[in-house]
Amino acid sequence: MELLWSPWRYEYVTSVADSCGCVFCDALHEPDSTSLVLHRGRTAFIILNLYPYNSGHLMIVPARHIATLGLASAEERCELMDLVQLAEQALTETYRPQGLNVGMNLGRAAGAGIVDHLHIHVVPRWSGDTNFMSVLGSVRVMPEDLKRGVDRLRPVFRQLTGQKTEDRRQKTEG
User: Can you tell me the mean pLDDT for 25-47?
Assistant: First the structure.
């Protein structure tokens, strides 16, 4: 068996037992200084994916713990799409991708890793970004760590939305 060393996952796998059970709900209560949340809206937020397919892989998530679009209010559905558009702008400005994948996996059979909390993936793509490492080695090569991604993207979201730099946890709580 070949081992892949990933020490950055230790904190995640040891903290899951202490959480409420939903990484998205937990993320809403973390301070911006330690979270992967990039933008907080009225009813939804944008978070960097902890296990990305590519650098800049984001998720748009309703603040309310709901599993399907059918449970989302009209306001939540509208803001989810507004945030997808905002994510497109921020990723284009920051990473200059040649394309984007935008999508949802609803239910375990559809590939959802987190089944009980609806989320939309936005993944920047470049020609040739999948290479032999993921095809032959079942390994993904990430050229940027998550902290660097947060540091690059958060100011772009603030600039695009006119938000100030203070901790914005209260915005999506309530």
Answer: 92
pTM score, whole prediction: 0.75
Catalytic residue among 57, 117, 119, 121: 119
Token look-up 């996952």 returns 9
Q: Pick from 78, 99, 73: which is nearest to 88 by CA?
A: 99
Cβ-based neighbour number of residue 46 at 10 Å: 24
Question: In the structure encoding, which two tokens stand for residue 173, read together?
Answer: 């709580």
**What's the one-letter identity of residue 22?**
C
The one-letter amino acid at 70: G
Whether 39 is catalytic is no
Residue with tokens 């920047």: 124
Give kind and range of the element (H or E) at residue 48. strand 44-48
